[in-house]
Amino acid sequence: MLLMVGLGNPGARYAGNRHNVGFMAVDRIAADHGFSPWKARFQGSVAEGRLGNARVTLLKPGTFMNLSGQSVGEAMRYLKLTPAEVVVLHDDLDLAPGKVRVKQGGGHAGHNGLRSIHQHVGEAYGRVRIGIGHPGHKDRVAGYVLSDFAKAEADLLDDMIRGISDDAPALAEGDAGRFQNAVAARTAPARNSGTAPSPPAGAATPAPARAPDPAAEPPGLSDKLRALGARFR
Question: Catalytic residue at 19?
Fold first, then answer.
């Protein structure tokens, strides 16, 4: 049994926020892998199913981010799980958008949802850190995480969430390396990077333009008259 927790804030007002990318990820996993309908439980919403050989309960705490640990702790106690059998999917300011990293244990890095989970279950649970980038200054963080993803980020966000869902069985079975590599393979191709695409293999390389030869003979008078006449035909 594995408890897979997506972090976010409940309600339509927050649905598209960067802070809710954990909710987005578990929603996609539930839809793609045939999980049961979501139902109210453990101060949140749960869906049940399988990922590969693992039996999994998905949880979206309904307590708001700062109290996520209440919901996670209640679910853990009822399901008789240890922190090592819990994986939390959450937004991460320290990773660039599109980057996903798996981590076991460690600090909460100031994330209020993780801080609350630390208080209720300790720090030994697993995490899937989902990169959202940083606004550039700590004073802008609160507004940034509670704002929606920009339209320009839509394709990359979709690739990232799709990759997390597609390769969730590897995550559930404990193969963090395969999971990370598979998500990276989906999100790695640069979008609108501004660099020209490489020519196909075997394609002829166009010859570079030749600079004028200063020693070449200038056009003759007859050539100039022909060119001038062509302009007035």
Answer: yes
Residue 189 has a pLDDT of 60
Taking the model in full, what pTM does it have? 0.80
* DSSP H or E segment with residue 204: none
- Active-site residue, selected from the candidate residues 19, 33, 90, 111: 19
Give residue-wise pLDDT tens across range 81-120: 999 999 999 999 999 999 999 999 999 999 999 999 999 9
Please provide residue 29's backbone torsions phi and psi, each rounded to the nearest 5 degrees.
-60, -45
Q: Helices (DSSP H) in 14-140: which residue ranges?
A: 21-32, 68-79, 112-121
**CB-based contacts of 149-152 (< 8 A; 24+ apart in sequence):** 149/16, 149/18
Backbone region of residue 106 per phi and psi (left: phi > 0; alpha: psi in -120 to 50; beta: other values): left
Please give the Cα distance from 61 to 113 (Å, whole number). 10
- Please state the rounded mean pLDDT for residues 171-187: 94
Element spanning 225, H or E: helix 221-231
